[in-house]
Design brief:
heterodimer, A: globular, B: alpha/beta, six-stranded mixed beta sheet, ABC_BtuC-like (chain A), transmembrane (chain A)
Chain lengths: 291, 254
């Protein structure tokens, strides 16, 4: 495959996984949590690097899961001590992120891992950092990890579909029919963490938030059914990646920036044109009334 | 006296530093229909949540059917306040009712046609068959409440807790819900309902539990539903209208 094809494929995998996870972030009203985890996984990556001196996939994924779970645990803990949810998230993620930054500068000082890279990603280098796998042969490492993460996310969403649905819609009922609400919460946080860390190389900590939140928020405007929202959100994620790449190629600018910008364009289009909740539809026909 | 199905002993619960419930004691008999009444902030919702382990118990005990909540979870149904969920969630009425069955369906299994039929029958019972495929945000408040009731019905529990099912609903929904409550009672089920309308308490419930941080009075409606007990519970803040007990105005959400 060509250099361009690998970049588009990698970015599309980011869009797809983030699009799926994003649906539950939006519906669980946890958009801020995505922002937090996208920063704290940096700490996980740095610690994994310091311990193993490697930046390979599996260590990074484990480090990210631990960092993500710690974030969720600390937020929950502060919250139980009477600190507001939003404030708790702000305190935890800035502190953990800061520790990550300090550790990078103090112990790592390596060309492969710097703060700039962590924040903005470096998708242009992805096609050169390759790994050789059986059957498929030599492919970019990031694409391999993202494929793995995508299948993990898909598997968990399908396997626990009804549990995600009920714990998201009505956690009180879920608990009362015997579904472990807190366990599902931490499982979900783990999925957010691995999706984020796998997307990290491609788009960085700031852009991954755009990929997590915006396609799902756009999809919410087009449908009233959960499974359709998942499909549409995934497609919007992929579309953002492709459109973003061509914007970047056209005006010769940052690829990850353009992709995040493309998610915004899709949201704007959805907001204006969606048949159900769009501005245009509301203008053309008056609000439906109850009978 | 019937079998005691629920026994609460010295129950205390708090929100952060504020004790909301202290030393709550009562027993409920099988087949009774109890109205829980009390002013705003009396701890009515907290009482239900604490009994169902959705809110931590500071001290005291709750026994269902002589056993712990965990062991008999499947025999207990819960209808939360309508305002406790986001009705913009992307799903339809039938799906919400089916959620009542998710505990029985079990891990890694999908709802089958049988589950769908059960959910549909419950909706039909609440007069909502025509709205089965309606997006839930497109339902009126009363219809949403009926969906919640249908969801409780499919659980086929033996004891039900309902948090303000009659708050802010239309007259038709109120009638439909009361008909179902009477049917549940006739079938030997036990029902406890947080209720806000003092005018209808005597018509609707055979037992009353007056609550204001603790149990003020609990017993058969005929025996305990007196002006004295109401005045004690509400701190004398009620008005008497034409000899009948006046309505204490509550906002729908607490």
């Amino acid at each position: 495959m060509t250099y361009t094809a690998w970049i588009i494929l990698t970015a599309s995998l980011v869009g797809l996984s983030c699009g799926l996870i994003g649906v539950f972030l939006i519906l669980r009203k946890m958009a801020m949590m995505a922002d937090a985890i996208s920063h704290t996984v940096l700490l996980g990556i740095v610690v994994a690097f310091i311990i193993t001196q490697e930046l390979t996939g599996v260590h990074m994924l484990i480090g990210a899961i631990i960092a993500g779970l710690l974030t969720a645990l600390f937020v929950q803990w502060l919250n139980s001590l009477d600190v507001q949810q939003e404030a708790a998230i702000g305190i935890v993620f800035t502190t953990l992120f800061a520790i990550g930054v300090i550790l990078i500068e103090a112990f790592v000082g390596n060309a492969h891992l710097d703060v700039q890279h962590a924040l903005m990603g470096e998708i242009t280098f992805i096609p050169w950092n390759r790994i050789t796998l059986p059957i498929v042969g030599s492919i970019p490492k990031a694409a391999a990890i993202l494929t793995l993460v995508f299948f993990v996310v898909l598997l968990f969403i399908i396997a626990f579909y009804k549990e995600w649905k009920i714990t998201t819609f009505d956690p009180g009922l879920a608990a009362s029919v015997g579904i472990p609400v807190l366990f599902m919460h931490y499982l979900f946080m783990s999925l957010v963490s691995i999706t984020t860390v796998a997307s990290f190389d491609a788009v960085g900590a700031i852009m991954v938030v755009a990929m997590l939140i915006t396609p799902a928020a756009s999809a919410y405007l087009w449908t009233d059914r959960l499974h359709m929202m998942l499909v549409i959100s995934g497609l919007f994620g992929v579309a953002s990646a492709v459109i973003g790449y061509f914007i970047a190629a056209w005006i010769d600018t940052s690829i990850s920036g353009s992709m995040a910008f493309a998610t915004g364009l899709i949201f704007l289009a959805s907001y204006l044109l969606s048949p159900k909740h769009g501005l245009l539809a509301k203008y053309l026909k008056p609000e439906e009334t109850f009978e | 006296m019937n079998e005691v199905v629920l026994e609460v002993k010295n129950l205390t619960a708090a929100y952060q530093k504020n004790t909301v419930l202290r030393d709550v004691n009562f027993q409920v008999e099988a087949g009774s229909l109890t109205g829980i009444v009390g002013p705003n902030g009396a701890g009515k919702s907290t009482l239900i949540k604490t009994m169902l382990a959705l809110h931590p118990v500071l001290s005291g005990e709750v026994h269902f059917f002589g056993s712990t909540y965990k062991k008999v979870k499947k025999r207990i149904g819960y209808v939360p306040q309508r305002g406790s969920v986001d009705w913009d969630f992307p799903t339809i009425a039938l799906d919400v009712v089916m959620m009542g069955l998710y505990g029985q369906i079990g891990w890694l299994r999908r709802p089958t046609k049988t589950h769908q039929r059960m959910a549909f029958e419950a909706l039909d019972k609440m007069g909502m068959a025509d709205y089965a495929n309606r997006q839930i945000s497109q339902l009126s408040g009363g219809q949403q409440q009926r969906v919640f009731l249908a969801r409780a019905l499919v659980q086929n529990a033996d004891i039900y807790f309902m948090d303000e099912p009659l708050a802010g609903v239309d007259a038709a929904t109120e009638r439909a819900i009361m008909k179902i409550l009477d049917e549940l009672k006739a079938a030997g089920k036990t029902v406890m309902v947080v209720h806000h309308d003092l005018q209808t308490v005597a018509d609707y419930f055979d037992h009353v539990l007056f609550l204001n941080r603790t149990v003020i009075k609990h017993g058969k409606t005929n025996d305990v539903y007196t002006e004295d007990n109401i005045a004690t519970t509400y701190g004398g803040s009620i008005r008497l209208i034409g000899g009948r007990i006046g309505n204490v105005v509550h906002p729908v959400k607490q």
